[in-house]
Amino acid sequence: MTLRKIVQPQQTARILGIETSCDETAASVIENGRAILSSVVATQIEIHKKYGGVFPEVASRQHIRTIYAVIEQALQQAHLGIGDIDAIAVTRGPGLAGSLVVGMNAAKGLALGHDIPLIGVNHLEGHIYSAWVYPADTIEPPPEPQFPLLALLVSGGHTELNLMHDHLQYKRLGATLDDAAGEAFDKVARMLDLSYPGGPSIQSAADEGDPTAFNFPRSRLDGTWDFSFSGLKTAVLRVVRKLEDSHRPIPVANLAASFQAAVVDVLFSKTMKAAKEFDVKELVVAGGVSANRVLRDAFLKQTDFPIHIPPLSLCTDNGAMIGAAGYYHFAFGHRDPLNLDVLPTWPLS
Ligand code: KG4
Ligand code: ZN
């Protein structure tokens, strides 16, 4: 079944994307899978900062407070009413159950009340589809990612390499065996007394540091396409403990820079190796950690391999990526029933 058979080129489909899997309440209107008519994100970062991480119950209650305002704003910014929406795509999982339920129920309420199709979208798939979208007023839209492609997904909860031969088809080559890359950033930030979320804090501390100051281990797990970051995290902890025990100052910037360099080194080298091995045409790098400047520089400057990395605002959680993935489901004729349940753990392939 090809996409062209389902959606005629002259047809316009507008999808409302809703995302509440973690600590961002987000909604967006996407036209034909790529053009962002609006994208609204209400972040809870300031609320969770004092806990040093996401407090699940607080997150879901905050989603309840903001979800309808966020959706309303997304429609307003798109200059559309709910009646102009062809389908509602909502994150079904993976994520925090209590948070997912809020977005799911908001989507169901709108779908039922306005007789609009409902489509549950995998959050990880959403991250991959963030590589497809661009602001609707872009004069020259960026080229569409071409298959077969390799997608490196690096977020707070996941780190995996997926091979895609067509839309919505994922073959997971490998994944982290322990911590996700973003989780390692968050945990190491805590060790270094840097604020949540750890990724941006480590990155700015690292700007002042020497990435070669500490030669941290790189788990290459050769012979597999898997990753592992817990050994690296423990190596940082060991250095911190040793310095603390001997009452010496902690060289935060050097530790942050050396840790960041080790993570980027492994992600970059393994992804490039897989890209060659599986002979893909293009690469997609997506998820919160793809906002990391050193990682972006590696993929954008150290290789001329065709690569799609979303702009910073679309690396972390947003509704546009859910609307984009939702569009392709819509185009292939997928529809979900109104008793659709959330899936807090839901592998992509
Ligand atoms: O994709 P995302 O917003 O949420 C999940 O689906 O998990 O990713 C959040 C993760 C957090 O672990 C955060 O520390 C990390 O992305 N992150 C970064 C950067 N910005 C966000 N990691 C490294 N460098 C960054 N600049
Ligand atoms: Zn995410």
Number of strands: 11
| Proper CATH architecture of the largest domain | 2-Layer Sandwich
The coarse silhouette is globular
Indicate the radius of gyration in whole angstroms.
Answer: 20 Å
Helix fraction, binned, reads 40-55%
Alpha-carbon distance between the termini?
Answer: 19 Å
Structural class: alpha/beta
Largest sheet: 6 strands, mixed
CATH superfamily placement of the largest domain: ATPase, nucleotide binding domain
With strands numbered from the N-terminus, the spatial order across the biggest sheet is 5-4-1-2-3-6
Mean residue pLDDT = 96
In terms of per-residue confidence, which ranges show pLDDT below 50 for 5 or more consecutive residues? Answer: none
Ligands and ions found: 5'-O-[(R)-(carboxyoxy)(hydroxy)phosphoryl]adenosine, zinc ion
Oligomer: single chain
CATH class of the largest domain: Alpha Beta
Q: Which topology of the largest domain does CATH recognise?
A: Nucleotidyltransferase, domain 5
Order of helices and strands: HEEEHHEHEHEEEEHHHHEHEH
* Helical segment count: 11
Q: Which strand-content bin applies to the residues?
A: 15-25%
Can you give a write-up of this model?
The protein is α/β, with parallel strands linked by helices. Helix content is 40%, strand content 17%. It has helices spanning 3-6, 45-49, 56-77, 97-114, 123-129, 181-191, 198-206, 230-245, 252-277, 293-301, 319-331; strands at 14-19, 24-31, 35-43, 87-93, 118-122, 134-135, 149-154, 159-164, 171-175, 282-286, 307-308. It has a six-stranded mixed β-sheet, sandwiched between helices. Helix 3 runs parallel beside helix 4 and helix 5 (123-129) crosses helix 11 (319-331). The longest helix has 26 residues, at 252-277. The mean pLDDT is 96. Bound molecules: 5'-O-[(R)-(carboxyoxy)(hydroxy)phosphoryl]adenosine and zinc ion. Zinc ion binds at residues 123, 127, 155, 287-288, 317.
